[in-house]
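User:
Can I borrow your eye for a moment on a structure tokenisation matter? Would you put together a sequence-and-structure record for a protein of your own picking? Please set it down just below, with no commentary around it:
AI:
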Amino acid sequence: SPDARYLAFATRSGMFLRELATGETHAIDVPGVLRPRAKAWFPDGSHLVVTASPASGGTGVYNVPLFGGSARKIIDNADARSISADGSQLAVVRGDWPEQEVWLFAGDGQNPRKLIAANGDVFGSSVFSPHGRKLALIRYSYTSSPHEKKISLETLALATNKNHFILSNSSLADSVVGAPDGRVIYALQED
């Protein structure tokens, strides 16, 4: 959680919330969905951004309150990636492999705007800059084979949709986080 008091996690049995000081763990109820995955904390620390599959099929993004209230689907046919520090923007991916698109929504799931159109790429982790004006993301660009890919870390200026290439490395892991000073932290996998 933003205040470092709680840990949200998922297992095959469901989603859970653990209070770190005591180790006490409680189930997080998200009725009517399969495979819920906590993607991010809303800044208030009392709600989670969750991607899950409704029993009827597809994938959706949910706002899940942790201390009372009901989960609410806020975006259909999407997989959440990150939420801005002030909770006003939500980055999601739509589409199936390898034709994914990156979309920006308001934190409540309204005002959709396509940032990156489908062009044969797949998108991994993303993180907003502290001020919410840029989005850093991992892009997988596939060539003629699903086993041949270029993995890159890029930033996108949200006001202009201008893309800035940072690096490409076949060992780039699907993990990117932002430091409070605006730096992007990424990981490389070892063979």
